[in-house]
Amino acid sequence: MLKKHNHKIWLVTVDMGYGHQRATFPLKHLAQGGIISANTYRGIPDSDKKIWETSRHLYEFISRLTRIPVVGQKAFDLYDHFQAIPEFYPKRDLSQPTLQLKETMALVKSRNWGKHLIEKLNKKPRPLVTSFFAVAFMAEQFGYKGEIYCIICDADIARVWADLKPQNSRVNYFAPCYRVVERLKLYGVQPEKIFLTGFPLPKENLGGENLSALRHDMGHRLFNLDAAGRYLKRYHQNIKEHLKMKKLPKKHNHPFTVTFAVGGAGAQREIGAKMLKSLKQKIEAKSMRLNLIAGTHVDVHDYFIKAVENAGLTRHLGKEIHILFQQDKTKYFAEFNNWLRTTDVLWTKPSELSFYPALGIPIIMAPPIGSQEKFNRLWLKTIGAGISQNDPRYTAEWLFDWLQSGWLAQAAMRGFIEAPRFGTYNIEKILANKPEKAQKVKTLMQY
């Protein structure tokens, strides 16, 4: 399974937000020389770096605009219009290039954007796997000698993910769900270039293809998510069969834990502060634990610290309240994955984390930011693994009502059963030329 040195791959991501890097992190063991960031690698030409930085700064600026009432949202909506995903039905030919795609390819062709990176990798060609469409286009444009693979990071995608002439493109795609497969076909990508793998998830949270770690964590999580035992009592036998356990745990191995994660641009931190204030009595009573994920943003970390102080909960820091901050994204992803093992509910916007209910973690969905997140939200609702947040100011009321009802336990099981979880292993097998051994991904996820 790609253990030999000559079976290593070039694994390329981009340092913009978290989504593209989170998609490559579980595959880091395959990467020759580690994961390469296309916009920050050593030796990147100044001309390339300037293009990348302009793109990243625009994305972060626009994302933060949503915090400004009315005006900010209108500005973001205008920006999002140019990268919006078209309605799927009626099915039709969507292969005509969009303005966003034409502008991307113009930068690649007229300014040789990415040529230096591809020439560097071409000195020792091996399978090139990237989580960003522009890198795949660069590889094709500048004659990369190895196979080219692109990991899709959302449950539906805009036209910009497929080449100008997709019918003739060399790019192969790893699709996280069936809708992406069908969408790529509408964009003109040849079916033989599309692999339905599932999104790559961290192996440490799975525990191998027998899912030993996941099944163990799931048993304890369900105990916390079904406070009155309604769901467990009704579906006890079915749950044991799905988890392949002779008996379920009779007590939890951690307190009921909610993890609130802001996005890569640091947006929606205010939700965390409102929720924190509402949960004050629950935290003081030590009836729950709250993880606040600041990621790699020191300003978000400081904001959460201040929010804890304003709520009068400083003495609970490091006990009932934990804040995750790491300057290094690799360390952040590793620590975040570890925290997920004792997380019962993940509260976040429907980003690439929309695929993490496959780990048996229900998602409380913050409002989506951008067209692709609206489709991620739809996908989560379709499989029954995500529930839209209610007013954060009253979290202590509706969240604990949901615990009593068993709804969150049900959402956890729906995610465990319906969401694809073998993406990392399937990608490994395809890269090792053993696609026939890949785990089948259910096709009922179309919406």
Please give a structural write-up.
- This protein has 447 residues and is of the alpha/beta class.
- It has 2 domains: 5-201 and 423-437, Rossmann fold; 204-418, Rossmann fold.
- Helices cover 43% and strands 11% of the residues.
- The chain is built from 18 helices and 12 strands.
- It has helices at 19-24, 46-65, 71-81, 99-110, 115-121, 133-141, 178-186, 203-206, 212-225, 230-243, 269-278, 280-284, 298-310, 329-340, 371-383, 395-405, 407-418, 423-431; strands spanning 10-13, 36-37, 128-130, 148-151, 171-175, 194-196, 257-261, 289-295, 321-325, 345-348, 363-365, 386-388.
- The strands form 2 sheets. A 6-stranded parallel beta sheet has the order 2-1-3-4-5-6. It has a 6-stranded parallel beta sheet with strand order 9-8-7-10-11-12, with helices on both faces.
- α15 links the parallel β11 (363-365) and β12 (386-388).
- α4 (99-110) packs across α6.
- The protein is globular and about 60 Å long.
- The model is unreliable at 1-5 (pLDDT under 50).
Looking at this protein, list some descriptive labels:
12 strands; six-stranded parallel sheet; 2 domains; 43% helix; alpha/beta; 18 helices; globular; disordered N terminus; single chain; Rossmann fold; 447 residues
